[in-house]
Design a protein that fits this description.
This protein is α/β, with parallel strands linked by helices and 281 residues long. The protein has 8 helices and 13 strands. A 7-stranded mixed beta sheet has the order 7-6-5-8-9-10-11, with helices on both faces. A 4-stranded antiparallel beta sheet has the order 2-3-1-4, covered by helices on one side. Strands 12-13 form a two-stranded antiparallel sheet. β5 (86-92), α3 (97-108) and β6 form a beta-alpha-beta unit.
Length: 281
């Protein structure tokens, strides 16, 4: 590969039309860009087309995107993404399993991400974060309104200019102002598959109901609590031999796995948000 050759990913989200794959790849060919990998999906109900195209070559982003705009329908969204590492800020409360999993996977390269900082409304996880040489900010919420506390959190987040904010078991409900500041950029892990069993002690609720599966859901945060576009989910079978403590222990394993998987998909530019759903390519 020549020194000035780059790898980029084209993300196309547009109204469906005849011959879109050919139109897009013809523009790539015109610019002498090699298609390394391509995947597409058509939502026939809403007549919407999605395509993720990995490209290799010498890029002139401005002229390439201008030519593409002439080839695809009006109202299209398209983005050309480079190879740079994305930056995240992680928000936590007291539970360590999700944060620890992300820290370790970033450390060993399983997740190609820059963790700019960890912010907690308690300082319980500062020692864990310090072991990885990452700044930890304790911003307590005591004696503050939710709006006052979130303003302090956002001021801290903004100094790092993250691509995404990860809620690694951050156990506070976010206000509409916070959600609006990071549209489709805040990722949460929910301790259920449906989601269900809201509120305190979800695994005790599951135990009382005698559930046969437990699971976790990673989703984008919206103003509708735990109802944002779902990125990924996983379930685990359980039975009558599981106590509430057993379920909680198994649930923590599922939660950290699902959150890390969702983060990996986001970092790899595989997730399109379409209404209150996602398309993952």
């Amino acid at each position: 590969m020549l020194n000035n050759t780059q790898k980029k990913t084209l993300l196309t989200d547009c109204p469906d039309d005849l011959g879109l794959i050919a139109k897009i790849t013809n523009i790539c060919h015109k610019h002498q860009l090699n298609v390394v990998q391509n995947k597409e999906f058509v939502d026939h109900e809403h007549r919407q087309f999605f395509m993720r195209t990995e490209l290799e070559g010498i890029f002139n982003d401005e002229t390439f995107l201008a030519d593409l705009d002439h080839a695809i329908p009006t109202g299209s969204r398209r983005k050309l993404v480079g190879e740079g590492r994305k930056k995240v800020v992680i928000m936590v409360t007291k539970e360590a399993h999700c944060l620890g999993d992300i820290l370790m996977k970033a450390y060993d390269g399983t997740l190609d991400v820059e963790i700019a900082a960890v912010i907690g409304n308690y300082d319980d996880l500062s020692a864990l974060t310090d072991k990885f040489g990452i700044p930890f900010h304790h911003i307590g919420h005591e004696n503050l309104t939710r709006a006052e506390h979130e303003e302090l959190m956002m001021n801290c987040i903004e100094q790092y200019e993250p691509d995404f904010v990860i809620l690694a078991k951050y156990m506070r409900i976010l206000t509409p102002a916070f959600v609006e500041a990071y549209p489709h950029r805040v990722i949460n892990i929910h301790h259920s598959f449906l989601p269900a069993f809201i509120g305190a002690k979800p695994y005790h609720q599951a135990y009382q109901r005698g559930v046969k599966i437990i699971g976790a859901t990673a989703h984008f945060v919206t103003n509708n609590l735990d109802e944002g576009p779902i990125i990924t989910q996983t379930v685990l079978p359980v039975d009558h031999t599981f106590s509430a403590t057993d379920m909680a222990r198994a649930g923590r394993d599922v939660e950290k796995s699902v959150l890390s998987k969702a983060l990996g998909l986001i970092l790899d530019d595989r997730v399109f948000v379409h209404g209150n759903r996602t398309v993952v390519l």
